[in-house]
Amino acid sequence: MSRFLILVLVLANIASAIGVVYARHRHRVLFDEVTRLERARDELNVEFGRLQLEQATVAEATRIDQVARVRLGMKFPEAADIVVVRP
User: Fold this and answer.
1) Which residue among 30, 40, 82, 86 is least crowded, i.e. fewest CB within 10 A of its CB?
2) What is the pTM of this model?
3) Rg of the Cα atoms in the chain
4) Closest among 6, 5, 9, 27 to 17, alpha carbons compared
5) Looking at residue 75, what is its pLDDT?
6) Is the pLDDT of residue 3 over 90?
7) Three-class secondary structure assignment of 34-84
8) How far is CA 63 from CA 4, 23, 27, 52, 86, in A?
């Protein structure tokens, strides 16, 4: 009876050790994944900031006016060309 109990305890000890090893391995794998995802998040935050700056530059009123004049050949109408329509 005591040999059976010792065998059960040894098997439980081995199972517990295997569980600890598996848990530590899983922790390392998940930690690597979290680190990789944090790095990707940081890179995306940098890109987002750059895109916000670019959007602010492109949407600036003087920039829009410059593009309208140079690329599209637009200009403000002369006073004689303005017609006011009243109901």
Assistant:
1) 86
2) 0.57
3) 35
4) 9
5) 86
6) yes
7) HHHHHHHHHHHHHHHHHHHHHHHHHCCHHHHHHHHHHCCCCCCCCHHHCCC
8) 86, 58, 52, 16, 33
Q: Supply 33's token pair.
A: 């994944």
Helix or strand (DSSP H, E) at 26? helix 2-58
Give residue 6's identity as a one-letter amino acid code.
I
What would the two tokens of residue 17 be?
Answer: 């050790």
Taking every pair of Cα atoms in the chain, the longest distance, rounded to a whole number of angstroms, is 113
Amino acid at 34: V
Instruction: For residue 6, give both structure tokens.
Output: 């010792």
Tokens of 84: 């006011």
**Tokens describing residue 35:** 């680190």
Please check whether residue 63 is in contact with residue 57, taking contact to mean a CB–CB distance below 8 angstroms: yes
Instruction: Render pLDDT for 14-70 as a digit per residue (tens, 0 to 9).
Output: 999 999 999 999 999 999 999 999 999 999 999 999 999 988 887 788 888 888 889
